[in-house]
Amino acid sequence: MTSQPETTSGEPRKLTVRRAPKYVPFMIAGALTGVVTAAIFTFMAPPSEEFETSSIFGFFTVLLLIPGATLGAVMALILDRQGRRRSKTLLAAPLPDDHSNAEAETA
Fold it and tell me: SUPFAM superfamilies given for it (predicted)?
């Protein structure tokens, strides 16, 4: 990612480079963690004559899916903040165009 707009002049530019996490995979991982936690809670619960096991699993899944996805998003935000602190500023010099070299050779 760059923080400066591109210019067409031949002068060097300062660019900020950093690593940034993708939020969707973190949210999916958090949601899957919520589903796994729901399965663990389902099998830890004593058997009930009133509810089937699949109903209990569905209830826990609905209950833990959104908090898991939220936890994944919070983790991505924390990693994004750390990435901003570790960002580096580099000096980038443009390379000469092939067209300008070809014109200089023919002249």
Answer: MFS general substrate transporter
Q: What is the pLDDT of residues 38-65, one digit of tens each?
A: 999 999 988 888 989 899 999 999 999 9
CB atoms within 10 A of CB 42: 17
Residue 39, CB half-sphere, CA atoms under 13 Å: how many? 5
